[in-house]
Amino acid sequence: MTNKKEIPVIAIMRPEIHIRDSVELARSMGFEPLAVPMVVLNNMKDGRFDSFFTRVMKGETDYVIFDSASGIDFTLRKVPHSIRPQFIEALNRLSVVANSPGTKQALEETGVKVEGVPSHYSSEGLIDYLRDNVEGAVVDIARGYACSSMLIEGLRDFGATVFETIVYNLIDPDGDEQKELIESAMKGNIDVFAFTNCVIVNNFFDHAKRLGYDKDIPKVLNNSIVASMGEGTAHALRLHRVKSGVIPDNFTFEELLRASMQAYTDAKGHL
Length: 271
What we know:
Pfam families: HEM4. The chain is an alpha/beta fold. The protein has helices at 16-28, 49-58, 69-77, 84-92, 101-109, 123-130, 150-157, 176-186, 198-210, 217-222, 231-239, 253-269, and strands at 9-12, 32-35, 40-43, 63-66, 95-98, 138-144, 161-171, 192-195, 225-228.
């Protein structure tokens, strides 16, 4: 529900590390943010990290893909400080690809040289960017839990040997503010729901279920603007009987906000 000034209220459910910048960006684009994290980033080391580290240090991989600033942060956390400079030097002897300008900036701030960024900031964009150069190549992906295996399967289709290591996972926070967000949604106080990850989707509906709203919350969302970053996130919403009307081509929060505002404006124009 918009306020008296007709400013749309948007639910921002990104991790705490992104909340401040997301709120400022949303306000600058004409939204009233209601920011409540629905995931907590948690450092983890899976059974494939050591092999990834070894391939990088020995130059046995051709491309290393990072799809978020958190991906490089949590990767470096697992590298001992004493050899971190050597690890960065080893990355710089390889072709490092970032999925977006924001990820590129985070990599460069740590001293990692980035070969390129696709024109479309998505799994499809990464596949299209690399498709002509990966036949017979070894590609490593360091990232958090992904909503789909599209990137891995797409690169393999073009002849690459692909390895993935999960460098952080996403935990469901369970506090009063998460409950209050669900209550606000049920009261019709939110105009736009911005989902940036399939885990956020699942956590949102888990909270609604615990509060007894699992049958009603899909109706609330389907009567609002629902935006999702990527087809994997949209698919997670469909599994909960919610249609995402906004899926931007580029996987950036700014693009998600821009497309959401356009959808909101269009919807208001039809009233």
